[in-house]
Amino acid sequence: xxxxxxxxxxxxxxxxxxxxxxxxxxxxxxxxxxxxxxxxxxxxxxxxxxxxxxxxxxxxxxxxxxxxxxxxxxxxxxxxxxxxxxxxxxxxxxxxxxxxxxxxxxxxxxxxxxxxxxxxxxxxxxxxxxxxxxxxxxxxxxxxxxxxxxxxxxxxxxxxxxxxxxxxxxxxxxxxxxxxxxxxxxxxxxxxxxxxxxxxxxxxxxxxxxxxxxxxxxxxxxxxxxxxxxxxxxxxxxxxxxxxxxxxxxxxxxxxxxxxxxxxxxxxxxxxxxxxxxxxxxxxxxxxxxxxxxxxxxxxxxxxxxxxxxxxxxxxxxxxxxxxxxxxxxxxxxxxxxxxxxxxxxxxxxxxxxxxxxxxxxxxxxxxxxxxxxxxxxxxxxxxxxxxxxxxxxxxxxxx
Length: 400
Description:
- This protein is mainly β.
- The chain contains two helices and 31 strands.
- The protein is globular and about 60 Å long.
């Protein structure tokens, strides 16, 4: 995504970069990290000695400024975007996490967001998707350019009765409309996928913002989506993760079904880089993983761990690591084994409310990676998560 240069009217939230000192490597891919940050009114750096985390993981900063609980996050280049149930969206500029822009007030509560190209797509409690672009006439102002479904899409369908579906008793809507809150979004190959509490999965083409398809996907609310190489994974309160594949030019068809624990909602789903492993987080605090064959039709449960004492609300991937955020206010960091099993390597504590969303930086920083978390305590937190080197793992294996 391309943004305008920084506006002088915006005050920085951190006065120095989070990683202000050079990394001193003690190993081929490990090294200490500096968390020496200056104080500011909207950001609270946390010193290493006071960090309530295990091992060498570090809490780097606490960013405040949202008027409601932080509901979703997205990374795009040097920017971090966070949105809240208070309807506001903040763009933070890395590495010092200055507030670059703020927009979105007055619209429906934001439930999910994704970025692609020079646009931001936000999903809202009012069952609409909004499309934003940076205004070229004014720096740092995000301009609303479209609302989905678009007026053009409406006009092309509202006259034909066959385009209406019954959403509840005595109430009908066009099939291109969601009938309840949109809870999640995913983007892949020029397509935006939206999942809703109305149990449907909708497919939108980015080029013309047209709704191509509506799938009655689940028997209960859809809570999470992941898309990988044209395959879509939907997690639902009905306790299932379903796998959808587009069949040529035809509509999406159900390719696989992953069943969690009985009467336990699936709140989130992630898929690994090769598409062979899928992990889901449940409302019982369990984290489950399935391994699939090359055809994505046969799946085997290879992992079922009690990750948290309360519900797993969000998941994110960072290479061989999986991070899980929970209603117990904590984040667990897991390493994936060769067989898909998980071993916990750290617990990050500090949020004063349930952890609602997670995003991990794809880039390695000082032998680790940056993790961003948003919670119902209205804060966005930044963590540095240590990656053990292969040398250290070999030493541990020899000692054991």
